[in-house]
Fold this sequence. Notes:
Layout: E1 6-9, E2 19-23, E3 29-35, E4 39-43, E5 57-59, E6 66-70, E7 75-81, E8 91-96, E9 99-104, E10 109-115, E11 122-126, E12 135-139, E13 143-147, E14 153-158, E15 163-169, E16 178-183, E17 187-192, E18 195-201, E19 209-215, E20 224-229, E21 233-237, E22 244-249, E23 254-260, E24 269-274, E25 278-282, H1 296-329, E26 348-355, E27 364-371, E28 376-383, E29 392-395, E30 405-410, E31 418-427, E32 435-443, E33 449-452, E34 463-467, H2 472-482, E35 496-502, E36 508-513, E37 518-522, H3 526-539, E38 548-550, H4 552-598, H5 602-649, H6 654-668, H7 672-681
Antiparallel strand pairs: 1-25, 2-3, 3-4, 4-6, 5-6, 7-8, 8-9, 9-10, 11-12, 12-13, 13-14, 15-16, 16-17, 17-18, 19-20, 20-21, 21-22, 23-24, 24-25, 26-27, 27-30, 28-29, 28-31, 31-32, 33-35, 34-37, 34-38, 35-36, 36-37
Bound molecules: calcium ion (2 copies).
One calcium ion binds next to loops.
Amino acid sequence: MLLPVFTLKLRHKISPRMVAIGRYDGTHPCLAAATQAGKVFIHNPHTRSQHFSASRVSQSPLESDVSLLNINQAVSCLTAGVLNPELGYDALLVGTQTNLLAYDVYNNSDLFYREVADGANAIVLGTLGDIPSPLAIIGGNCALQGFDHEGDDLFWTVTGDNVHSLALCDFDSDGKKELLVGSEDFDIRVFKEDEIVAEMTETESKNHAMSIHAYDLNSDGVHELITGWSNGKVDARSDRTGEVIFKDNFSSAVAGVVEGDYRMDGHIQLICCSVDGEIRGYLPGTAEMKGNLMDTSIEQDLIRELSQKKQTLLLELRNYEENTKAELSSPLNETDGQRGVIPANTKLHTALSVSLGNETQAAHAELCISTSNDTIIRAVLIFAEGIFVGESHVVHPSMHNLSNSIRIPITPPKDVPVDLHLKAFVGYRSSTQFHVFELTRQLPRFSMYALTSPDSASEPLSYVNFVIAERAQRVVIWLNQNFLLPEDTNIQNAPFQVCFTSLRNGGRLYIKIRSSGEITVNTDDIDLAGDIIQSMASFFSIEDLQVEADFPVYFEELRKVLVKVDEYHSVHQKLSADMADNSNVIRSLLVRAEDARLMRDMKTMKNRYMELYDLNKDLLNEYKIRCNNHTELLGNLKAVNQAIQRAGRLRVGKPKNQVISACRDAIRSNNINTLFRIMRVGTASS
Ligand code: CA
Ligand code: CA
């Protein structure tokens, strides 16, 4: 059994996910972690007597080997590493909802302290793409921002939702790192600098992994996935089989998993920290352990599990044998119910279509599964990401409804292509065993749009307009692959137009192709317009696409949001000024009260302290107002960042990046009209 090589119990709580190890003096690895009340502690077990003089750091009153860094604000992310390669030691980076601090622990000084309007929910340190200097990249309110060691932001872009986690890795094996961004909408987006090169949608999961880490715990030369869980479990899984090769338990949630040579003996330990401040370090298993890191009872569990599986398989085999015997003994018995085995030529057909719904059922996409003969479908199991609660769906008609076909309504919440993995149980009415057909069907990206006949009254005012060098026939192929068109759809050569109705909200979508290759898409849904452009761009391998767009209603809403952002900014400034005034008043009241005490003028002293008490109450109220104001401001800034991201998604390649950076410049210089011009025509210059 693998045991920790060291265990420490620190008398500080650790905030989940905020643990980092760094060599802040270039030599000694020290653990830094955010703790309650806006502090970061640095545990330095290597040098005992360290004295800090400047204001940010103080000695912990609880432990001599712990220093405390005052942030005075809830810490929202933390990391450590090389930000300036010339320094030769690691910087500590601490993010909050409003600021990012890069700190030189060794010299006890700020490297930089920047205001970050979009907050810092997550942070990662390293190099990105072709940008030569290491960056501290933070993710916040739909925005990503990367700072070099001088605090200059060399990287900025927007993303679809609030950022929850970040990682740097060479995703496409071209020798340069991409940025992986996990966000609130369960999407993982891969950024090649500021361009999204891949997107994956995950579904919500019940268990919370607090921290993950790659570490070779069984010394076989391959990293295991180490996961620290909210229930205090730590486990190591094989990357190939997912099998748990080691686990341990903490009495409280795991706050972070890191690695470092914490004993300075030349061996890297896996270091796990719990929110209660317990720290355990593990060394990889030795050769004698032969990868056997857990005690024997777990092996016995495994043997039990395997013999259970063997029993099930034997039972299944016996059933097959019985069936075959029955078939052979009575080949002429054709009465339904006597037969166990279905005809060998039985085929399973699947068809996808769109149903407009009626009084009892909402509009939906529909999957029809049928067999090619008189066999019945007893049940269907569907596995698909993001469509059903819990990723799977079972359909099993009641006995008197059994037939050779089943219709299953499907309503994907998002316009993404989804693989439907099907298992259909086919047999006869009284069969006890069924033949299982397994197959996969892809639900097209825009399956929630029904082809309808166009009428000019319903045509949306909002549109995107662009030119592609593709023949109309290829556009028809794209339509067929991405929409569920009725089988009898016959689209002629350009010019043509198709009209769809959204099954979700009844909104109309027009796609018009002129013989010149000009395409106009009319929809009031800016996200749908972006999805269609991105889908066409990848289908036709378009690298750069400039697009003209107008979304009058959406842009009007955005204009209102920008006015609000201005208001909240000025309220923020006024409140900050008030706060500064009040702290001066507090200082003078305190001095006057103390003067009165020294003069033994108890009445005056009491009055001053009463005034101080009232002022304190006012301050608390003002603080609440400031907090609310800030929350409102964040909400509106998020809407602005989302609008920039949406305007970007209407374009492809260089024009897309130009739109995003030009929008940001327009917002920085408070040039609202330019902003809307960029969103419409894709460029600031006329
Ligand atoms: Ca790469
Ligand atoms: Ca390993």
